[in-house]
Amino acid sequence: MLKEPESSRSSGGLMEQEKRCGCGHGAARPWYKTGLVRILGLVLFLLVASRAFSFFRPFYDSFIGYTRIIFLPVLIGLLLGGVIDHYIPREYISKHLSGSRKRTILYSVGLGFLMSACSHGILALSMEIHKKGASGPATVSFLLASPWANLPVTILLFGFFGAKALFIVLGALFVALMTGWVLQWLSRRNLIEQNPNSVPTEEGFSIRKDVARRFREHRFSWKGFREDLGGVVGGSVALADMVLGWILIGMVMAGLAGAFVPAHVFHHYLGPTFLGLLITMAAATVLEVCSEGTSPLAFEIYRQTGAFGNAFAFLMGGVVTDVTEIGLVWKNLGPRTAGWMVAISLPQVILLGWIFNHTM
Question: Which of 32, 39, 172, 195 is the most exposed place for a label (fewest CB within 10 A)?
Answer without folding.
Answer: 32
